[in-house]
């Protein structure tokens, strides 16, 4: 009985099971609040340390901005080149030069004959007078052309195949070449294929350049964070002796890498925007001299956000790799 009474007293003194739930909630809430406070402090302290070392921070951000601006500028140029050459690559017309003896009326009858075919969408007749006027306007040899007594240009038919026909419509091309009224058929399929190959090569080169400069950005951030870790080695050792976890030690350097990437990406976007503004006027004048009304376009709102997000991620990743390697190397071997 004497043994049973203390056990009964302990049972009466023990709190109910449901009273431990508020304690657990308070404990989780306290841990969450402490975790948020640690992140907030690391967020501020990493930015404060960058401000305290302005020249080193500025040099790191400049190197990252230039490295990120190069592939972004290449992307803008390639995107405009694709838009400019889009109509050229999609053009499917045949330019049919008729014999010199074929007059304008015969050319119109030939055009009406071709227009009745199911594989032909449209046929446009260009008379020698129209061709000479166009050549006079574009060539810049107007005074020299005035010396000519006769117009040496033939009638020309511009034949547009149907959109759903095979690429280039080789059957129609061979029929036009074999027609006795035709002197020559011009179809620039070869240079269009070369243009597509050049643009494809440019896209692959842009991808390779982006990967290489992305790795360079990663190394720049990693080297900067490594130097910062070495400068704070004694502070890190003291904090670890006090029982700080690896995550606590690593957190300020991760935020430092994030800030470097954020500012570097923003600088790259600004640099590309300035280059675009500087080149827009002369390039538009050049296109206008070739009677081209192509509208240049830069990047929209998505591309800058993606660049800044990617650069911030690269900075964070570079800091994580370096800080993790330092913590693993400094951990005592068992």
TrEMBL record:
Keywords carried by this UniProt record: Cell cycle, Cell division, Cell inner membrane, Cell membrane, Membrane, Transmembrane, Transmembrane helix
GO BP term, pick one: cell division
Q: What InterPro entries does the database record attribute to this sequence?
A: ABC3_permease_C, FtsX, FtsX_ECD, FtsX_proteobact-type
The residue ranges of the ABC3 transporter permease C-terminal domain are 210-326
Out of the domains of life, which is the source?
Answer: Bacteria
Q: Which Pfam families match?
A: FtsX, FtsX_ECD
- Assembly information from the UniProt record: Forms a membrane-associated complex with FtsE.
Name this protein carries in UniProt = Cell division protein FtsX
Which organism is this entry from?
Answer: Dokdonella immobilis
